[in-house]
Amino acid sequence: MSHPVQLNGFHHVAYRCKDAKETVEFYQNVLGMDFQLAIAEDHVPSTGAYDPYMHIFMDAGNGNVLAFFELPEQPDMDRDHNTPKWVQHIAMKLDSLEELIAAKASIESHGIDVIGPTNHGIFKSIYFFDPNGHRLELAANTHTEEQMQELHRVAPDMLEEWSKTKKAPRHAAWLHEKIAEDK
Hints:
Layout: E1 13-17, H1 20-31, E2 34-43, E3 50-59, E4 65-70, E5 89-94, H2 97-108, E6 115-119, E7 123-129, E8 135-141, H3 145-165, H4 173-182
Parallel strand pairs: 1-4, 5-8
Antiparallel strand pairs: 2-3, 3-4, 6-7, 7-8
């Protein structure tokens, strides 16, 4: 019998970008991320296929790396038009609500539209887009340990009910009531 895989976090998460230089500058200047490294090849190492690329790696803190590929010989990048723009996003953590408010002001000072803060009951977040059209979220936790334990406890039941009905289960209705109270 084989043992389950034991993950130790993400090595990196990779997305496509329109322009590697513009993307590095955005993440450096707007989010203060360090440009760690670049890899450029004419052939894809895993397949051997000819497909020139620039692969850039940005430090998102705590060993987390956000990476991008610029693919100049592929058709222009686009998004999945069958999925709403708000669904696919990259969410990054901040340590406090004060940092979240300061981040919003800083990002807006670059002329970027920011939505939020939005209260999710267990965290608050702001939303904006990078130059590639990727939706970004910055989030600051507001939850208690007890709230997270309860959400973890009901998660399997919620998933099972959703799987059968495709209707929002009410196991965590207290979370939405908390949001309404905080307004």
